[in-house]
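testing teh design pipeline on a random one, pls ignore if ur not involved
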């Protein structure tokens, strides 16, 4: 599902626990640059779409399909857990030479006061 930017300047999240959100102001997966897709880790009811994202390893493949059924394939290059405060925004969302896909979900500990996790897992992948 296409998502935008929140009033606080963060990438929005999909409205459904089982949908992934593509940043519509960014590039499409497979196009030059860094496409970014996020998804929920879990909810009070249990796991969500990206609950197993941490199980990926460098070299694993990620397949992304569009509404027309066209598919592009990426290879995982790295996984990084980053603090929410001090998140490497430019490295994840900034300009890049190549065709990349970055997947984001929550990680770390749930912060009750902020109602979110204190870290993010970022999976970096490159078009094959």
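output:
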């Amino acid at each position: 599902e296409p998502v935008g930017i929140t009033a606080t300047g963060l990438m929005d999240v999909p409205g459904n626990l089982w949908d992934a959100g593509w940043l519509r102001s960014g590039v499409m997966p497979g196009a030059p640059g860094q496409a970014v897709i996020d998804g929920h880790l879990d909810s009070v009811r249990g796991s969500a779409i990206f609950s197993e994202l941490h199980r990926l390893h460098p070299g694993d493949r990620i397949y992304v399909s569009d509404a027309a059924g066209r598919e592009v394939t990426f290879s995982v290059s790295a996984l990084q857990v980053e603090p929410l405060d001090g998140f490497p925004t430019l490295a994840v969302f900034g300009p890049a030479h190549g065709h990349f896909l970055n997947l984001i979900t929550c990680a770390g500990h749930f912060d009750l006061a902020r109602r979110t996790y204190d870290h993010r897992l970022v999976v970096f992948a490159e078009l094959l």
